[in-house]
Amino acid sequence: MDFPSKLIESAVEEVAKLPGIGKKTALRLVLHLLKRDEEQTQRLAETLQAMRTNVTYCRKCHNLSDEELCSICANRKRDASLICVVEDIRDVLAIENTAQFKGLYHVLGGIISPVEGIGPSDLHIDSLVERLRSDESEQVREVILALSPTMEGDTTAFYLQKKLRPFKVKISTIARGVPIGGDLEYADEVTLGRSILSRIAYE
Amino acid sequence: MDFPSKLIESAVEEVAKLPGIGKKTALRLVLHLLKRDEEQTQRLAETLQAMRTNVTYCRKCHNLSDEELCSICANRKRDASLICVVEDIRDVLAIENTAQFKGLYHVLGGIISPVEGIGPSDLHIDSLVERLRSDESEQVREVILALSPTMEGDTTAFYLQKKLRPFKVKISTIARGVPIGGDLEYADEVTLGRSILSRIAYE
């Protein structure tokens, strides 16, 4: 595209660097900003800069945080005997939205994936081991592995389980099976097969 | 969603104000920026601000421009005897991409639409009339109406044609008919009917 304005052109180029946004969408967004108050663009630019400069990672669970200790780790009402291990911050948000978990988290920052060249040393696994080792009052009772039910997720879970075995903690994974509200006939064979093998007693 | 970081929360909120971007997409974009260099966010924010603050409109054709006169109006190689009237800057880009038009433009900045409360006075119609009136050397020979073939486009074209009749210029509209490469059986009846009525001599 041949833009009549260099300013527009560079703005479109920068916006189009974002994932899932092509040149046409970028132009639409830029023209939208031009139609709105100058203040809105100002605010967008400023919050993005402030976010990128000031957001940090919790020194305990590696969750994104504004402080050295994130609001979840700092909350004394949360159950410190449970640690839920997740891949990234989006999983924390997803689990928080269920309102079913009151423990703490540990964000790995990724998942073991030989294909993408991500090994255990690239993840926050050592700090999880350290968290359990330094837990002298044996406060932690259970580590829940909440990883995606994929090959990579299973590999990571297997690796973690081996690393955590020396400690006196229960290790569990989130339940896998047919999704609630889903029609049985549309469930894939692997999921359905596994849900039969790992059936649970009816209460 | 309950964010662990206020900085992330406000960034997501601002990004989600853009059209077609929901909260989940906004979060994905914000997390993407966090993974990339701080410099990228900086550049994105700065180009957006520079664009919003400095982009202006060409005083002649109302196209977006960095200068008082846009690069198309300022280009002496363009054919000043042709003026192509379009709805907005995206149409200018679309026509420029065809590389078939070497004249000048006039951007209306919208289209007459009683439903949305947009009347002729909200558009740059007076300045088009003024452009023709001040054209003392009778340089302009033809005004091409390149408006969308919709009810609003047709209304605007009709209004313009009435306004421009007093001047000694040819008025034309872009051809309407079956799109090139399209299968005839899939063309809608109105388009196909019109393309039969306004058939052209085979050369």
The CATH topology of the largest domain in chain A turns out to be: Dna Topoisomerase Vi A Subunit, Chain: A, domain 2
- Global geometry of chain A: globular
Major sheet summary line of chain A: 4 strands, parallel
Q: Share of helix among residues of chain A?
A: 40-55%
- Gyration radius of chain A (Cα, Å) is 22 Å
Termini separation of chain A = 64 Å
Average pLDDT rating of chain A: 90
Q: How is the largest sheet of chain A built, in terms of strand order?
A: 4-3-5-6
Helices of chain A, by number, come to 8
**Largest interface (C-beta under 8 Å):** A-B, 59 and 59 residues
Order of helices and strands of chain A: HHHEEHEHEHEHEH
Oligomer: homodimer
